[in-house]
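Lab meeting minutes (informal)
Scribe: AK
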Amino acid sequence: MQTRRDVFQAIADPTRRAILLLIATQAMTPNAIAEEFDTSRQAVSKHIQILTECELVKQEQKGREIYYHINAHKIKEIDKWIEQFKMLVETQFNQLDSVILTLKRQKK
């Protein structure tokens, strides 16, 4: 399946983030997922379709049921991309801590 949407566009929606959290611990059917939301099954199916297109979730056929589960590899890619910003922010905070410490020492 070819990705039509950007991963970050997909996770920008709070319902899709909630779906990801819901299936993070166990695979679920679309009906089971839809039961957790105060919206139509069709709306939830659309969200699942977007998550699938972005490869954030995978589907697995078990008998007559389709189960959706997290694609850990794709989530890891997102985490890796975000990690660079976490390191940047940590560096800035460390520099700020150093400046504050220097100012405190100058006051004494």
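Next up, CB showed the second protein from the same session:
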Amino acid sequence: MPAVVLVGAQWGDEGKGKATDLLGSRVDYVVKFNGGNNAGHTVVIGDEKYALHLLPSGILSPGVVPVIANGVVVDIDVLFEELDALIARGVDVSRLLVSGSAHVIAGYHRTIDKVTERFLGKRRIGTTGRGIGPAYADKINRVGIRMWDLFDEKILAEKVEGALDQKNHLLVKVYNRRAITVEETVEELLQHAERLKPMVTDTSLVLNRALDEGKTLLFEAGQATMLDVDHGTYPFVTSSSATAGGAVTGSGIGPTRVTGVIGVVKAYTTRVGEGPFPTELFDQWGEYLQKTGGEFGVTTGRARRCGWYDSVITRYASRVNGLTDLVLTKLDVLTGIEKIPVCVAYDVDGVRYDEMPTDQTAFHHAKPIYEELDGWWEDISNARAFADLPVNAQRYVRALEEMSGARISAIGVGPARDATIQVHDLLG
């Protein structure tokens, strides 16, 4: 049975929540395998709009078991804020499972995240300040706090003491902040422990048993390929594995169990935060895409940087993820543009690059080489079959498919839940 991984194929905000929701009625489990509450997914159901940050999008699909797996870092306050907000709107959240091996974001992680960014000044990474990076750093440094630790106060206090030993020197002597006590941190972490306990389990075991029983699993990435800590535009990346390989390490299933990898791309490109962005627009077209596409961060509210479609990074994402399918979103935003540029290669100091340069300096100096495609004027928001699209919109999609290294199996033509054209079966 399918174990399908869903990843962003650009810098994030591609519409992964919509793609997950599209498949939600056909899967048994939706698993978030990386990241934390530093990215948001917007799902529109009828007249209702849901903004999710930490929870898997599958929590909105009746009958689906949503799972926060071991590769995620969890801010417990945010977790219960989101759950309570959904409960208030009548959403059943009782099926949620959380990995006991998932690491916990403590208050000191958020503090260090914010003061470090300020300290870096113009060299800042552009983090959300939510403690994600410091929590992952503690995980790698083996001084992290895991979900299991919350249910043994003695062990928790010992681990918090070990984590704060070095951090307080940093906060006091480098950043001129007050020291954080073990007691206040333990109290903060324990306040939701009893409510959390029934949700926490060995999710790796649960997921492998589900596959053995013939269940269908969808693994949902936070962030996106170009923000992956190994394969993204380092150092302007997140602190976890947002590519398909992260689904394996971040959930505890074996690589041979993955049956497909779906990449999500916008019909143009956006980016939030710092870092190079070859097709970024600083003219009226950048403003047009931002306003027409509603390009403001779900989690941060920050305006997204906007640019034309970049087939070079999509080819790269196709390669490093092993994409079997693409979901193309927000095609409707391009309606009314007479000529639509598409980046087909880069120029780096006079040298043409058809594939993405992984050298940081080369990518920083990359200039887009464009081909222009004819646009369309017709409203496409009611199209539900590929043949319903104007001829030029069809040609645009086919051109992107040819350039991008994977077949385009679904096309988003509006924000509504049903505003999607399905070309191929994403679970087939």
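CB comment: The mean pLDDT is 92.
No objections, moving on.
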